[in-house]
Amino acid sequence: MPASAAPGWRVETGAVCGHAAGLPAASGPAEACADCLPIGGQWVHLRRCLSCDHVACCDSSPHRHATAHATATAHPVVASAEAREHWAWCYPDRALLLPSP
To answer: How far, in Å, CA of 64 to CA of 67, rounded?
Structure first.
C-alpha cells in the first residue's frame, strides 16, 4: 500500500501497512489506563486503540495492556495517547504510522 493511501495516517517511508486506510485521527491525550485502574496497576505511557478508542498502557508498563487488547480483539492499530506525541503503530505489520500532512 502506498504511503499516501491512508487519509489520516501515512506509513513511514520503507514500511508497508495494510491496516492504515480509513483509520480515524487520534483523539488526543488520555489520563489513565482503563485496565490498570481497576487493579491498581501502574503505567508508563498510554496508547489508544484506533478501532474502538480503548486506552491502555504501553509495553514498557508492567501489564502491557495495549498489546493484550490488540491480541484479544484483533484491533491492529494503536496511537500514542500522550500529549505532544503524534504517531500510531500497526501491530500485525510492525509499521510506524505518522499523521498525514
So the answer is: 6
Report pLDDT digits (tens) over 11-45.
988 889 999 888 888 888 999 999 999 999 999 99
Phi-psi region of 32 (alpha: psi -120 to 50; beta: other; left: phi over 0): beta
Exposure on the CB side of residue 87, measured as CA atoms within 13 A:
7
β-strands 9-11, 88-90 pairing: unpaired
CA–CA distance, 68 with 83 (Å, rounded to integer): 23
How far apart are alpha carbons 77 and 40 in whole angstroms? 26
Q: Which fold has domain 9-13+29-99?
A: Herpes Virus-1 (3.30.40)
Residue-level pLDDT at 13: 82
